[in-house]
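Chain X:
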Amino acid sequence: MSSPEALQEARKQWMKDETGPFSDIFLPQMIGCLKSKALMESQEFQALAPEAKAAIQSDTSPDLELVSVSHVLSNQAASSFC
């Protein structure tokens, strides 16, 4: 925000209907856990011990984790933040 007045106006708009300049800031997090067929076919993976391969191939062990972090604030939290 370029000025205290602009910050205050953005805060008022956010508190009213969760729109305006703050709507670009207070976005939810995105998380993706993916498996890679290419990894499982790589020479490095093939050279691993069977126990290590089994651990990596388990359904609860992602090969890739993608995370987009942003501030997530409710109106109540935003009132004390701004």
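Chain Y:
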Amino acid sequence: MLSRCLAAIFVAAIAMPAHATGPNKPEFYLNPELNTTYTKSGPLSILETHFGLKSGPWYMQCGPAINSNDGDRDVGFTGKAGFTSDINEDLNVYTEVGVIKFSPLTPEYNLKLGAVIDF
């Protein structure tokens, strides 16, 4: 699954115009992210290590996810794609779809929709 995601990022980068400049210029990036949930039994954490591509308001990223909550280290896959848009100079809206998969569990999907309001 990871190789398919990285291949998709590579194909998207090839398909983008090489002469694109300004806000639509394709850019690669790294996005390590630690997600922690606190439950009655204690904290649960997953470290996502994404490699991504963004161009204008669009981005996609994927990489390994490391779960070491039960003492053993499990490595899975996570990927996200999203869009962000400025409504005006004080309001930005965004959406993101994602998937995370650890064997032998079934994939979990998520959808985010949010806004950033500047004061």
